[in-house]
Design goal:
The protein is mainly beta. It is built from 3 helices and 11 strands. Strands 1, 2, 3, 4, 5, 6, 7, 8, 9, 10 and 11 form an 11-stranded antiparallel sheet that branches.
Length: 281
């Protein structure tokens, strides 16, 4: 599925460049590759007993990072300003593998009693990204500031935690326990608040910096970097959470003890691409 999306975006960009290369329209395909630094939000309910509150604080998710990437198509029009500058109004859409990764500590029953283990959890969403990305160009340099939404279409949930040697009772670093679960769009919608939409969405903002290396008068390779922010995706809490990926009988975290649970993230990385259209230089 991912390969087909990337190939379709490249075909559209190349075809569009041959049709309107002489006009002010521009087309480009960009491949961002980077890290997502996730920030959990977990608000504990008031009135809980001291032991429960402390356990929730001790086992709360902590910030961690994960690898993410994408393939997006920019379509729009560049307005020239003088000889060396221009402003581009671009639609920015495509595929993005959005990741929220966390670390935490959990208690597990083992020989000799309870053992505290290190747990890493990540949610990886295959998303459709739709947004706007205006860019200001000075010669071969472009700075973009835009935003939009990412719509999760599916994905995976991964878990990894410390395993213990059953004889010595000590952590076994060479034998980590891992879990993986596929996520359908329905599971994601049932587990995360759809806000005012029928589907769970992740609003985002991003800043891009690109250098264009000309191949010919209308075609350039692009090399750059980006910084983005994914706004909080809220987890559903309550009776309607019947089909949540979090509602596991043996799960140590009791989410009904929280008023709010959500995830946001800062994205940072590099990007390469191909651009077809007029030059500001």
């Amino acid at each position: 599925m991912t390969k087909r999306i990337v190939m379709a975006l490249m075909a559209i960009a190349i075809f569009a460049s041959t049709v309107v290369a002489e006009s002010g329209f521009e087309f480009g395909i960009t491949f961002p590759i980077g890290a997502s630094i996730s920030m959990p939000v977990q608000k504990i309910k008031n009135g809980l007993d001291t032991a429960t509150a402390k356990n929730l604080e001790d086992t709360a998710y902590k910030t961690s990072a994960g690898f993410e990437w994408g393939a997006t198509l920019q379509i729009g029009y560049m307005f020239a300003i003088g000889n060396d500058m221009g402003i581009s109004a671009l639609l920015d859409m495509g595929y993005y593998r959005d990741v929220f990764a966390f670390s935490s500590k959990e208690d597990r029953i083992n020989f000799g009693g309870m053992k505290e283990v290190d747990v890493r959890t990540s949610f990886e969403f295959d998303t459709l990204q739709i947004g706007l990305l205006p860019k200001f160009r000075i010669k071969n340099i472009a700075i973009g500031l835009g935003g939009g939404i990412k719509i999760p279409l599916g994905g995976n949930q991964y878990g990894q935690e410390t395993s213990f040697d059953y004889i010595t009772g000590k952590p076994d670093a060479n034998n980590l326990r891992t879990t993986a679960e596929g996520l359908t769009k329905k599971m994601i919608n049932d587990s995360f608040n759809p806000s005012t939409c029928l589907s769970a969405i992740i609003p985002y903002l991003k800043i891009t910096f690109d250098y264009m290396l000309p191949i010919d008068e209308k075609t350039s390779l692009t090399f750059g970097a980006y910084v983005g922010y994914d706004f909080k995706l809220d987890k559903k809490i309550g009776e309607k959470d019947y089909d949540s990926i979090f509602k596991e009988p043996d799960l140590d975290k009791h989410y009904d003890n929280y008023d709010n649970v959500g995830f946001s993230a800062i994205d940072i990385g590099i990007q390469i691409g191909l651009r077809f259209g007029p030059s500001a230089a």
